[in-house]
Amino acid sequence: MRVRPTLRGIAVGAVGLVLVLVAVAIGSPGLLRLGLLGVVAVVGAHVYAGLTDPTRGPHSLGVERVVRPNPVSVGQRATVRVAVRAHGLNERIRLAGLKLGEQAAVELSGGRPLRARVERSIDTISVLYPIYASRRGRWELGPLNVRHADPLGLASVGSALGTVAQVTVWPAVTDLALPSDALVGEPDRVALGARSPSTDDAALRDYRVGDDLRRVHWRSTARRGALMVRSDERAGMRPASVLLDLPPHEDDAEWTVALGASIALALLGAGHPVRLTGGRVEDGRIDPEARSRHLRETSSTARAELLDLTVDLVPGRTPAHTEEDLLAAARTIGHAGSGTELVFAVVGPLTGAGRAALAPLAAAGDAWALVRTGPEGSPAARDAESSVLALRRAGWRVVTATPGEPHADVWARLLGATR
Length: 419
Fold this sequence. Notes:
Layout: E1 2-5, H1 7-26, H2 29-51, E2 62-68, E3 72-73, E4 77-85, H3 89-95, E5 99-101, H4 106-109, E6 117-120, E7 124-132, E8 137-141, E9 144-149, E10 155-161, E11 165-170, H5 189-192, E12 197-206, H6 218-224, E13 228-234, E14 240-244, H7 250-269, E15 274-278, H8 288-292, H9 302-311, H10 319-336, E16 342-347, H11 352-364, E17 366-372, H12 379-393, E18 397-401, H13 407-415
Parallel strand pairs: 3-11, 14-15, 14-16, 16-17, 17-18
Antiparallel strand pairs: 1-10, 2-4, 4-7, 5-9, 6-7, 8-11, 9-10, 12-13
């Protein structure tokens, strides 16, 4: 809470002090009383403003903040509604004349003042304004900055009201087409099977929030003591892993994350169990086990879960950290691989250790790699070409791409790549 005099209060107080000094000098009781009246008015205004602070005491005003949609993707807009409510006479007095100012992360406001529509009633102030998601991450809204003045406008109090809300921003993904025969060759079809459901594929799995309760297998639930649901997986739909190697440059890293998420969603939509690995999460927001398990289309929340895995991904602080993240992701895929896994990697020019770690993944299953490159003739371009040759020798299907290229163009080129 910060109580400060207004310009009017400063003027009244200064005039009052001058009158007091003049009255003392000339011995005028009337002028002295007039000066003291001004000083007392300013002091009383400060006391009143402090006592009517909207955040003071057990009957402070209530704040509700709703963001729709939340999460939101990069490049999209969301609408924020903030309601400040009073539930009694004292709160209504505090609500009257209240001036509000919302705080928002620059990633949501674009660095510009928020333009809001304000609606007032006897017990509620509603503020409605749009935000624009410009960067992937978790960004804060609030608390409210509120100012309240005394009836004479001699002093005002400023304070923070309410709590902070968090807006989750997903990467801007592209809907990528995945033809039904794009990931298998003609000789593989007999071994892999068709995409049609089969009664032999029926399996049980743990219940997830959002699952249809009609699919609960009550006999197994009673036996195990935990909700189990029937999961009819599509025959022949092999698990897939999407491996991301994040570069230190922010724009290139965002392009990589968005492309990797787009590929993962395309695979998920086609029926493949998918996991997203690579990069690092600095503050431990994501459970490591959540990053190592495959998400399935049978869960109604699978798409949101997959996108949530991308929100907190950051590149390594040094080249050594970046390589460490790449090697850890390769070990995760190689350790749990069953020999039929589909692997998609979006990587930069690889070191010797990186090439050695990725090479065996093609032997265990089918593997596609997209290697980021630089301007023609640059060191980055030469290193990328060396990485392409090494991966192709190991059995990968590989193409190069320049960060910033449309995802759909890169994806089409990748699906058409040969070993």
